[in-house]
């Protein structure tokens, strides 16, 4: 399996995350991909290449132009306003308030942020754009006839909506890749999101469409971030009705239960008969993840990699979450080697 990766991800190295009422070192850190690379080399999964550069056109196929412009200038504007720390929003357009973007950078942060934990710092935009290029390069590899590819993206993407960032995500790498596959001839794409947290951004982008089926397995939003997205009765709207399938699950869900939900999701994907599959590969379902509450073991990741392979679809894996940092490489690569071995 080919892996696409760039050291440009290192340009995002912020120091602060709002967590548990404190500013702490971010859970989403550069070391995560280092452990994945180390494991990829250890198992000799395949060639590792750098991404091509695609510019903003494919990004703008799924994100609002003004939002993308905001991301590209936010850090510069924040510094120009005289702020000394990293950019974190402190005010949002809540219920019954006007939904109008302010001119102040502090107001813009609140307008475009879905949550307050994710700071913006130097290199954030450059890393996010590079991650999109990584996903697009992996998609191009599938277009060339490959069975699979792994986009080692950082920052992750599945919380980034049409015009929203948060949850460590800025551009939606999986959505950008899926749209790219459609733009190059595919008629239908399925996205399978196995990250612990609901991919509210991916759902947002495709909720009104029937050319992308979105299937997500995640922590019950009554208890888990992002809290306001991912309930089972969210099934799509308009022509997209029935093309969103959510499996929210409770605290301490074991692999036996999670696996049953996965099989139902895979059955729906098979019935949909897509031309390709994009997997939002978050491994924060791991039993020792510090900000999640499922109970998958490292061996379970290999098992479900084999299950995904049985769909016999061209498959792009896009790296998402996973915050038990020392185990991220093992768990991520277990999915990929399980897929390859099936």
Task: Give an account of the 3D structure.
The protein is α/β, with parallel strands linked by helices and 342 residues long. It has nine helices and ten strands. The chain has one domain: Histone deacetylase domain (Arginase, Chain A, 3-Layer(aba) Sandwich). An eight-stranded parallel sheet has the order 4-1-5-10-9-6-7-8, with helices on both faces. A two-stranded antiparallel ribbon has the order 2-3. The protein is globular and about 55 Å long.
- Stated plainly, the CATH topology is called Arginase, Chain A
* N- and C-termini, Cα separation: 13 Å
From the helix content, strand content and strand pairing, which structural class follows? alpha/beta
CATH class: Alpha Beta
Order of helices and strands: EEEHEHHHEHEHEEHEHEH
Report the radius of gyration as a whole number of Å.
Answer: 18 Å
The number of distinct helices, counting runs of at least 4 residues, comes to 9
| Strand order of the biggest β-sheet | 4-1-5-10-9-6-7-8
**CATH hierarchy: architecture:** 3-Layer(aba) Sandwich
- Shape assignment: globular
Low-confidence stretches: none
- The portion of residues assigned to helices is 25-40%
Number of strands: 10
Main beta sheet: 8 strands, parallel
The whole-number mean of residue pLDDT values reads 98
Portion in beta strands: 5-15%
Q: Tell me the name of the CATH homologous superfamily.
A: Histone deacetylase domain
Write down the domain tally.
Answer: 1
């Amino acid at each position: 399996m080919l892996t696409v990766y760039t050291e440009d991800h290192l340009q995002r190295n912020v120091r602060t995350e709002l967590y548990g009422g404190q500013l702490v070192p971010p859970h989403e850190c550069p070391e995560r991909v280092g452990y994945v690379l180390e494991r990829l080399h250890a198992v000799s999964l395949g060639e590792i290449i750098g991404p091509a550069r695609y510019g903003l056109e494919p990004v703008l196929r799924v994100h609002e132009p003004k939002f993308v412009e905001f991301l590209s200038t936010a850090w510069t504007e924040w510094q120009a306003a005289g702020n000394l720390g990293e950019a974190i929003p402190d005010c949002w357009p809540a219920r019954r308030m006007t939904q109008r973007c302010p001119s102040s950078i502090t107001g813009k942060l609140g307008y475009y942020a879905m949550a307050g934990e994710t700071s913006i710092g130097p290199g954030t935009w450059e890393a996010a754009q590079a991650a999109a290029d990584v996903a697009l390069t992996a998609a191009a590899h599938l277009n060339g006839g490959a069975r699979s590819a792994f986009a080692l993206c950082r920052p992750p993407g599945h919380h980034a909506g049409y015009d929203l960032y948060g949850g460590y995500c800025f551009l939606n790498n999986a959505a950008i890749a899926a749209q790219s596959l459609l733009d190059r001839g595919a008629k239908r794409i399925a996205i399978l999101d196995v990250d612990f947290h609901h991919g509210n951004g991916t759902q947002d982008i495709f909720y009104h469409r029937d050319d992308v089926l979105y299937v997500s397995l995640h922590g019950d939003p009554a208890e888990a971030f992002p809290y306001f997205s991912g309930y089972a009765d969210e099934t799509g709207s308009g022509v997209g009705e029935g093309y969103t399938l959510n499996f929210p699950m409770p605290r301490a869900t074991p692999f036996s239960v999670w696996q049953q939900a996965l099989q139902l999701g895979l059955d729906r994907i098979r019935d949909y008969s897509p031309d390709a599959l994009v997997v939002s590969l978050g491994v924060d379902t791991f039993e020792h993840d510090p900000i999640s509450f499922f109970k998958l073991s490292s061996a379970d990741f290999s098992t479900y990699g084999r299950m995904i392979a049985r769909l016999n679809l061209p498959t792009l894996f896009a790296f998402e979450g996973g915050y038990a940092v020392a185990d991220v490489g093992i768990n991520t690569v277990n999915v990929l080697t399980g897929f390859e071995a099936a």
